[in-house]
TrEMBL record:
Record keyword Calcium present: no
InterPro entries linked to this entry: Quino_amine_DH_bsu, WD40/YVTN_repeat-like_dom_sf, WD40_repeat_CS, WD40_rpt
Protein name: WD domain-containing protein, G-beta repeat-containing protein
SUPFAM superfamilies linked to this entry: YVTN repeat-like/Quinoprotein amine dehydrogenase
Organism superkingdom: Bacteria
Source organism of the structure: Nonomuraea antimicrobica
Length: 106
């Protein structure tokens, strides 16, 4: 579960391989995903990107406006969660294989 900056867009990851965006009335406003069991999600500080982690070792960054996957990084082992750097320049992911830090260029 993640909440976009401003608190108006919650995102929920599912065990079915998707992330779903909602409005404050609980109406789904977006859905995207490709992975098996997603385990974590984090919005970038500006809300333009949503990072997700999955059991299959994928860290994906999604464009929240289009639902397109902007990038994917695969590590050897399950990932559990992720968090953006406060300035949005990168993110960390953590899981069975360890802690990883990545830069993100738009």
């Amino acid at each position: 579960m993640a909440i976009a900056p401003g608190g108006r867009t919650p995102a929920a990851v599912t065990m079915l391989g998707s992330v779903e965006l909602f409005d404050l009335d609980g109406v789904r406003t977006g859905r995207f995903g490709l992975d098996d069991e997603m385990t974590g999600a984090a919005f970038s500080p500006d809300g333009a990107w949503l990072a997700t982690t999955a059991v299959n070792g994928c860290l994906r960054v999604w464009d929240t406006a289009t639902g397109e996957c902007a990038t994917v990084i695969v590590v050897d082992g399950a990932l559990r969660d992720c968090a953006w750097f406060p300035d949005g320049s990168g993110l960390c992911a953590v899981g069975k294989p360890g802690l990883f830090g990545f830069t993100f260029h738009r």
